[in-house]
Amino acid sequence: MIEATDFRNAMSLLTTAVNVITTKGSSGAHGFTASAVCSVTDTPPTLLVCMKQTSRSHAHFIENKTLSVNVLGAQHEQLSNAFASKLSSEERFAYGSWTQLQTGAPVLEDALVNFDCEIEHIQEVGTHSIFMCRVVAIKKAEQQGGIDESLVYFNRAYHQVGQVEIA
């Protein structure tokens, strides 16, 4: 049997993109930092997002049935930490500049890309919920100065990956 600690240590060596997942509804705006996000299919465009069931904002995502995946760039380390912290939802959204697309879930204006989604199915597995999300809108960042670097998490630390184009 594989121990949870051994599994977590092994998974720390799987490089993942860092995202802030947001929702908004009658109870306000909520969000969290996540690395467990991936494409499911392009027809229809679908993502999956994993969220710990004991998260204080879990019920808000279930109730709202919408979310936005905000893919973070290298400049967003502080914002990522804020959304992973014990700060209140209001304090978290003080970081960054926010707007919205189709669903009303907050989208980070300078994210590398935003996926605005409707949650279509929820599957509970162990300690987490897996949200199957149909993408209803996409907004890509304007490329600034030829530099597009993504914020990733590897071996329990932030790193930047990407390509710097030299003019």
Order of helices and strands: HEEEEEHEHHEEEEEE
Average residue pLDDT = 94
Which descriptor suits the 3D outline?
globular
Radius of gyration: 16 Å
Compute the number of helices.
4
Q: Stretches where pLDDT falls below 50 for ≥5 residues?
A: none
Number of strands: 12
Quaternary status of these chains?
single chain
Strand content: over 45%
Largest sheet at a glance?
7 strands, antiparallel
Structural class: alpha+beta
User: CA-to-CA gap between the ends?
Assistant: 54 Å
Instruction: Classify the helix fraction into a percent range.
Output: 10-25%
List the strand order in the largest sheet: 3-2-6-9-10-5-4
Describe this protein's structure:
The protein is α+β, with helices and mostly antiparallel strands. 16% of the residues lie in helices and 50% in strands. The chain is built from 4 helices and 12 strands; from the N terminus they run H-E-E-E-E-E-H-E-H-H-E-E-E-E-E-E. A 7-stranded antiparallel sheet has the order 3-2-6-9-10-5-4, with helices on both faces. A 3-stranded antiparallel sheet has the order 1-11-12, with no helix packed on it. Strand 7 (98-100) and strand 8 (106-108) form a beta hairpin. The model has no long low-confidence stretch (mean pLDDT 94).
Q: How would you concisely characterize the structure shown here?
A:
The chain has four helices and twelve strands, in the order αβββββαβααββββββ.
Keywords:
single chain; 167 residues; 7-stranded antiparallel β-sheet; 3-stranded antiparallel β-sheet
List the helices and strands and how they pair.
Blueprint: H1 4-11, E1 16-17, E2 19-25, E3 28-34, E4 37-42, E5 45-52, H2 58-64, E6 66-71, H3 77-83, H4 89-92, E7 98-100, E8 106-108, E9 113-125, E10 128-140, E11 147-154, E12 157-164
Antiparallel strand pairs: 1-11, 2-3, 2-6, 4-5, 5-10, 6-9, 7-8, 9-10, 11-12
